[in-house]
User: What shape does this take?
Amino acid sequence: MNPFLLLSSSLMGLAFGFLTWAGADQLARGLDLMEADFRDKLRRLRIRMPRLRQFLVIWLAFVAVLFVVMWIVFDLFFVGIVIIGLLFCLPWYVLRRKAERRRLQIEDQLADAMVSLSSSIRAGLSLAQSLEILARQTPPPICQEFQQLYGEYQLGKPMDRCLQETKDRLRSENFALFAAAMQASRESGGRLNETVDRIAHSVRELQRLERKILSDTAQARTSALYMALAPFFILALYYFVFDPENTRKLFETVPGQLMLCVAIIMDVVAYVWARVILNPEI
Assistant: This one.
């Protein structure tokens, strides 16, 4: 083994060990913030992960080791920084996307659930009985939320508190409107079925507009994805086919690595920016 490589690896290990020991308090606070954010998203996804902190520690250690390998073994310091930055954000991004997808599914099912609730109340059932029917008959994932809401109400929690906790958990504007209508109806004694019918009509109209926007922007979103992947495809073609010698300089020289890092960062930022622009918010 190369003595210089062995010495460099040993010094890097000592440096990382010293930094970890010196910043133990800051590292613990950062892990606490990450764990709280991850647990919030997992709670919204109804996923239990008792050893979340151990997973985060292992993931951070893996990212740190990968950075050391890219720096010491492959001499890709700047590219390693960008790659570990992307890997560091990967679990958060995946959970956020899954939580957002589940929220959208619940939004799509909410209008039909409101109509079913209104029909049950119009048939003479109480609010608790109507919620029980929703918990049994609605499709997932919204049935899971109604099951938890009805189960907590059966265990003795006040209905207002059950609705508030469900609203905080879902973070859905449509469900917040639905919960507010139910609370107002319980306090004032109005006709809940008529109020829910009007809200369901409004929610369906909003969903129709959102689907139209999604349909109109589908081609643009696909184009944004292809444009984000195109630079990597072109880089691979130049590296393996057209000009391997000069393309290697992007990885072997410091200016080349800086240019490559800037290109990767701009590519990711452009894709995220395009997704934000094309995201329908009504």
